[in-house]
Specification:
Radius of gyration: 21 Å
Number of strands: 2
Shape: elongated
Structural class: alpha+beta
Number of helices: 3
Largest sheet: 2 strands, antiparallel
Low-confidence stretches: none
Helix content: 25-40%
Strand order of the largest sheet: 1-2
Oligomer: single chain
């Protein structure tokens, strides 16, 4: 089972912002992955806004093979 919920950190405790589904039992052990809510957009912070989507498409279009083939080849080199 996997469920994504938002929580707030208060007084040393992670508190859900909404009621949890009925799937959980009292004292049930769970694994929690903590991710900053703003983290999903931070990777874009250093992007150059002057580079257009069309310029990226042109550059990728000149690359030999597919992106999947390039990733596979790069992994093989490691």
């Amino acid at each position: 089972m996997c469920e994504q919920i938002e929580v707030v950190y208060e007084n040393g405790v992670l508190r859900p912002l909404e009621a949890l589904s009925g799937q959980f039992q009292e004292h049930q052990h769970l694994t929690v992955t903590v991710e900053d809510a703003d983290e999903s957009t931070r990777w874009l912070a250093d992007a150059d806004p002057a580079v257009s989507l069309e310029a990226v498409r042109r550059a990728l279009g000149k690359a030999p093979g597919t992106i999947a083939q390039r990733i596979h080849a790069e992994r093989e080199e490691r």
